[in-house]
Amino acid sequence: MKDEDKVLKALATMQEGQNLIAKIVNELSSTVKELTGTVNKLTNEANGLRQDVVRMELQLTDKVKALFDGYESIRGTLTDHTQRLERIETKLETHEIQIKVLDSTKANKRKVK
pLDDT tens digits, residue range 91-104? Predict the structure, then answer.
């Protein structure tokens, strides 16, 4: 084989290698573009989810505040009703004692007659 043929063969082999490298670079470039698109899509979805979480937290905070306000209101009403009931029970006990006294006085008057 002549030196010239060897050089041509080496050049052909190098050309094939360059073509293969170019093909791989093109494939990698396509893959990078796809991955970039996927990353952008995921970033947008993550931002949307973040906004949803913030919105839900705000709504939940408002609802918890409303529930707490309702609890405080009911607790106040319950305390008031408990105090009223205690006063009524005290009056009832006093009335029961008065009725017993009146009954015994009435019974004593009947005995005296």
Answer: 999 999 999 998 88
Give the tokens for residue 76: 């106040």
Torsion angle, CA of 67/69/70/72, rounded to 10 degrees?
Answer: 120
**Residue 101 amino acid letter:** V
73: enclosing H helix or E strand? helix 3-112
Domain chopping of the chain, boundaries:
1-86
For 43-71, b/e burial (b = at least 16 CB within 10 A) is: eeeeeeeeeeeeeeeeeeeeeeeeeeeee
CA distances to 12, 13, 20, 62 from 8, in Å: 6, 9, 18, 80
pLDDT digits (tens, 9 = 90+) for 27-78: 999 999 999 999 999 999 999 999 999 999 999 999 999 999 999 999 999 9
Provide the pLDDT for residue 113. 62
